[in-house]
Amino acid sequence: MSPATVATATVALEDGLVLEARSVGAHGTALGEAVFTTGMSGYQEAVTDPSYAEQVLCFAAPMIGNYGAGPSCDESPRAWPRAVVMARAGDGPGAAGPEGWCAWLRRHGVVAVDDVDTRRLVRHLREGGAMRGGVSTELGPEELLAAVRAHPTLDGRDIASAAAGPARRLGQDGPRVVAIDCGMKESIARSLAGAGCRLEVVPAGITAGEVLALGPDGIFVSNGPGDPAAVAAVIATVRGVLGEVPLFGICLGHQLLGHALGLATERLPFGHRGSNHPVRRAEDGAVEITVQNHGYAVDAARLPDGVEITHTSLFDGSVEGLRAPELRASSVQYHPEARPGPRDAGYLFRSFVGELA
Amino acid sequence: MPMRTDIHTVLVLGSGPIVIGQAGEFDYSGTQACTALREDGYRVVLVNSNPASIMTDPQVADRTYVEPLDAEAVEAIIARERPDALLPTLGGQTALNLAVELDREGVLARHGVELIGADAAAIHRAEDRDAFRSCMAAAGLQTPPSRIVTDLSQGSAAAEELGFPLILRPGFTLGGEGGGVALGADDLDERLLAALDASPIRQVLVERSVIGWGEFELEVMRDGADNAIVVCSIENIDPMGVHTGDSVTVAPAMSLSDDELQRMRDAALAVIRAVGVSTGGANVQFALNRDTGELYVIEMNPRVSRSSALASKATGYPIAKIAARLALGGTLDELANEITGVTPASFEPALDYVAVKVPRFAFEKLPNAHAELTTHMKSVGEVLALGRTFGEAMGKALAGRELDVAPREPASVADALERLRTPAWDRFDVMLWALGAGASAAEVSDASGVHPWFCGELAALAAERARVAGPLDALGAGELLRARRAGLTDRDLAAATGTDEIAVGRRRRALGVRPTYHAVDTCAGEFAAQTTYYYAAFESEGELRRDDRPALVVLGSGPNRIGQGVEFDYCCVHAARAARELGHAAVMVNCNPETVSTDHGVSDRLYLEPLTLDAVLDICEAERPLGLITQLGGQTPLRLAAPLVAEGVPVLGTPPEAIDLAEDRGRFGALLDRLGLRAPRWAVAAEPGDALAAADEVGYPVLVRPSYVLGGRAMAVCEGPEELRAYLRREAPRGPLLVDRFVEGAIELDVDALSDGTSCWTAAVMEHIEAAGIHSGDSACVLPPQEAPARLVDELREQTAALAAGLGVIGLMNVQFAVRDGDVYVIEANPRASRTVPFVAKATGVPLVRHAVRLMLGEPLEALGLPARTPERQVAVKEAVLPFGRFPGEDPVLGPEMRATGESMGIGPTFAAAFAKAQRGAGQALPQAGVAFLSARDPDKARMAGVARRLAGAGMDLVATAGTAAALAAEGLDVASVAKVSEGSPHVVDLIAGGGVDLVVNTPSGPGARPDGALIRRAAVRASIPCITTIEAAEVAAVAIASGREGAAPVALQDLAEGPSSLSEIGDGRP
Ligand SMILES: Nc1ncnc2c1ncn2[C@@H]1O[C@H](COP(=O)(O)OP(=O)(O)O)[C@@H](O)[C@H]1O
Ligand SMILES: Nc1ncnc2c1ncn2[C@@H]1O[C@H](COP(=O)(O)OP(=O)(O)O)[C@@H](O)[C@H]1O
Ligand SMILES: [Mg+2]
Ligand SMILES: [Mg+2]
């Protein structure tokens, strides 16, 4: 067990690693899939990203919360990870707003700890692969471990449908785009609208017929949490609309398009989460530095006819983009909307909307 | 895009001697580049006049020219070596400016050499302040409102428009040289003139001040396929107004929101594309108004820089190596990230630690310099430290400075806050003091302009210090762990508990509180690191990977400072190389990011840690080394040797006992007596009050200095009691004083030798050009000796051998002698590697450090197979490079206190030719014709006549003030007379300032004796003309001028090995 300076909480992984910690957020016990991100900025953007639902998020960057918190950094109205694990959490005001980060976490009811040997945790996850974890301010190590081991894994569970926000509209002019919200980040909506379309955001669960009834010029499928294979309803919807109008997907949306095209998804050893992932574009060989947040990837071992890989990860060769030209469908595994992270790929929104006009 | 095959030979330019603003970082980048290019199969031709650098080792390039970095020399080298391409982006501003000149003068076109890395147009857009401004505007980026000014009248017009304070930024300069802040109309003209003078194209950007805004730097890379990445963001904790080189900086940026950071990233990429740096690295500086969000581009350097070296060390990403490969056509995605081994170079490093850089200043050596930190750089070195929190990194970085002079303690919180209003070298010490004494973080932030987040973190550090105050044994493991994690070092804990570092360390280790070592892996743990570059933290699990080879730990030399620069890094790097060759694991410890030794490829394990006792002991505990090498990093590790041995660490080579024997006056004197050797008469004044009596005892003139100082601090020659009293008043020294009889008019010789404890081998006897009394580090020297008869040289060899045996030296040693009328005096013996080791190694071709390591490992001298005598090759001259240009208030006169920052080397068939080259290499090329102003103190007048005759013979016109003019006229010389300053305008200073003089020879007569002299010398420095202040140097210079360009042909080190000795010509140089 690693000593913390003032141990008021415990972090545990299902394989038995237990670390002392200091509670800096809400009290309680939180269980989920343990993941880490190597992104160095944008902690609030990360924590409000619905894709982190049901996860225990560990920041590899050592000092989190340096510039405060505020509404301009929200990607959704709430915090999604079950728990947040940090090496060192700050609580002062700053560029993001006057509220301290720890205060923000408490206000949002997030179990959060710092003074954790996060490097050890990260290396452990790197070697051991994705696993369940928990953070508790109440349970002892043994009890916490037992709870972690009893917690369900993400595999085979549809948690995306519940991550959607309310139906809403953005943008005044341009083609009409229907966005299927599986836990969509707000900046995706803003980027699409900003690219010049009228955006109608509809929650996951909508059927293909309902989508087409809205008379879209283009369809978008959003990011979201969990195992893509389990999001059967949206896969069916995507299959149903394919070929009708141009379709674009991001992250989970990309994986769902993959399923709709007959591809499978597989779990990555420990996922891609960070702001520094190089991706090569097949078209011209250019490299984009991308923002990523996913634990599953499209398995492209057997590519159906009419489907191409447009982008590839230079970290592990995994699929980062798909296109079915005949069906006018394309997708990327990474986050062109950035927030947090580099904005190299922002042009993708413009090219999608441009295609519709 | 594969690497280019149409290029076969690449010419790489180095950055020349170390100067403020351009230090060892370019040795690091250049060495990396040369190594990478050769690995890729290119033939590399290198030019660099700096002998202390690793890059000028003959093994690093195919052809190595230690030659002046001027168009003449480089053209001759191009003509001989026929390179296909010139890579100018790795040798700092010097290389870049020279490349521009070679391009402009048509040299490159004439010889069909392609400029790679950055083309001339891109360099122009980045370096020409006007072109840069327009380029930014065209790209939609903002720069501060400004006017381009090329003369004084335009300056006042600009002031009218922009309002004071104004920032003056000369074009094509480095380290903000000549720049500054004009507060009002009264200082505008003077400052503007200085700025115009500093710019090689007389162009100054007069700019609205944004002092106080946040300052940030982004390190950008771009390849020929237009892939671009940001390697690192660096936040300057000192806001705008303090040069980035003088600022405490942190990576990654700490206080920026993601939105701010991404805006800056987008802007940085837009800048590199707009300027058109098509391949390689660049540094982009920004100013951010945190209230309004306004973002200004301040400048971009289209080359690797001090900041890129810092970023490489802070992230593990080898910017220079990658930049070199990109210049030859590689693309980022094709090149590997060698740290992970499995991912490409096209990514942006993620850090899971904080890197803090703290500058090291040397104001104690430049008492008349303005110590205020401003837009031109004044620091001489820097420390980098990594920690898991800002506090931890900051605490280590502050400790790594190894201050010789403690910061002045503030009188009160109010005094501290007042001091913080003006940026000064010790401002972070003062901040910590104030926070500890009750000031709030907000007050400290208000006073200093430092962002509140940093003040908050410093306040936490100060609070932690207060928390641990009390008895040491009250602190348990938990408390110690917490304190160390917060950033307190053992020394801080010792101060807080009234104990010492050793006691704290013993207790801490006994309680099991030990650091863990973590890899710098570029990826925050996402991939397994293949390299072994480590820093210490206090975490739960370390990740040190060792193999079974016995480890040799080499202690580096810490931050560069005057008296301790890259020459020691050279020694350490060679030791690591030797250790590996001998089958050991080489372990390096250093905290200086501007070095080759902190390139993790140089050793098997690199610890980026301060050279403090606690850090080194912890490393020894983790490494359990076969031995520790402390004699190669200058005074820094030498000081640690004794306590390390006391703690049971196996220090190799010369035992600490010998160090004490050499440094303790009484014991050393006794040793000399026993060996029958002579030192100048000496006495110790227990208190300053006894100095006069001591001086009477040894006899005037005397050389006085406080006994506790190093590197010749506060040293002075006093001719009589009056001067001694003045010295005591001026320096107000505390503690005992050393009073030596000053040996007047003696020649000084330096000997570097190897010894195994009984026998000794003299590697070189170097003769100083200046007489004894000028610090060995500041005087020029020549190898082999020109004036000393062979008999004397033999005598010095014998004395050196006696001293080596007497002291029990195992490894390297350096002895300084003063010789007058055949009498030999030992001035000092240093049982360690000296500053001249790289010079000697290059001049003689003998791998001194490798031999020293073998001796330290216990081999006897005869096993080394050394020749009876050092091979004689061509004549080699070393010249010192002084920082006076940067400190206009300083009188550029030499004395016993060292002030040089760097050195150049000249190699030639004759003394005169080698001397002339060394002068050119030092950036003070002797004129070939024109006007020489001569002025000599009385004792020098006769010899000055000889100088004058030779100069006149070479076709130079002579000018002198009345006294010297009369003396020279009496010798039958044709001399024009010019008025002294005291006689009113137009006087000599006007003449110099007006460009009417090409060479100044002015020998000073004691402190304060003639204010005119100082004015003349300062005017010469300002006018950038050579200023010679000793009669000996004047004599050699006159011979060199008279022999013109004879013997100036470039010499490659690789040809020297078998080169003919030119003994026949030696001696021909002397008048
Ligand atoms: N407009 C300005 N207002 C305030 N400070 C400035 C301004 N422009 C430059 N500086 C300061 O001067 C320093 C040196 O300027 P810079 O152009 O970067 O010179 P150098 O080429 O020597 O790096 C900067 O690091 C910054 O702190
Ligand atoms: N007794 C002396 N007579 C003449 N010159 C001396 C004497 N002692 C020292 N010096 C001069 O002062 C310089 C610095 O003295 P040194 O003892 O070598 O100091 P440091 O430890 O800084 O190298 C020497 O290089 C030499 O030129
Ligand atoms: Mg700068
Ligand atoms: Mg000396």
Write the layout of secondary structure elements.
The complex is a heterodimer of chains A (357) and B (1071).
Chain A (H helix, E strand, L loop, with lengths): L8 E5 L4 E6 L5 E9 L5 H5 L7 E5 L3 E2 L18 E3 L2 E2 L11 H7 L3 E4 L3 H11 L2 E6 L4 H10 L17 E3 L5 E6 L4 H9 L3 E6 L4 H6 L4 E4 L10 H10 L5 E4 L1 H9 L3 E18 L5 E13 L8 E6 L5 E6 L4 E4 L14 H10 L1
Parallel strand pairs in A: 3-4, 4-6, 5-7, 6-8, 11-12, 11-13, 13-14, 14-19
Antiparallel strand pairs in A: 1-2, 1-9, 2-8, 3-9, 10-12, 15-16, 15-17, 17-18, 18-19
Helix pairs in contact in A: 7-8
Chain B lengths: L8 E5 L11 H15 L3 E5 L15 E3 L5 H11 L3 E3 L4 H13 L2 H5 L2 E2 L4 H8 L1 H10 L7 E4 L2 H11 L3 E5 L9 E3 L2 H14 L5 E5 L5 E9 L5 E9 L12 E3 L6 H18 L4 E9 L6 E7 L4 H10 L3 H9 L8 E2 L5 E2 L9 E7 L20 E7 L2 H10 L13 H8 L6 H10 L4 H8 L3 H16 L9 H10 L3 H8 L3 H10 L5 E4 L13 E5 L13 E5 L10 H16 L3 E6 L14 E4 L4 H11 L3 E3 L5 H12 L9 H8 L1 H11 L6 E4 L5 H8 L3 E5 L9 E3 L2 H11 L5 E5 L5 E10 L3 E12 L9 E3 L6 H18 L2 E11 L2 E8 L6 H8 L3 H9 L18 E7 L20 E7 L2 H11 L9 E5 L5 H13 L3 E4 L1 H9 L4 E3 L10 H6 L5 E4 L8 H12 L4 E2 L2 H12 L10 H4 L15
Parallel strand pairs in B: 1-2, 1-4, 2-3, 4-5, 20-23, 21-22, 21-24, 22-23, 36-37, 36-39, 37-38, 39-40
Antiparallel strand pairs in B: 6-9, 7-8, 7-9, 10-11, 10-13, 11-12, 12-17, 13-14, 15-16, 17-18, 19-20, 25-28, 26-27, 26-28, 29-30, 29-32, 30-31, 31-34, 32-33, 34-35
Helix pairs in contact in B: 1-11, 5-6, 7-8, 13-14, 13-15, 14-16, 15-16, 18-19, 20-29, 23-24, 30-35, 31-35
The structure holds adenosine-5'-diphosphate (2 copies) and magnesium ion (2 copies).
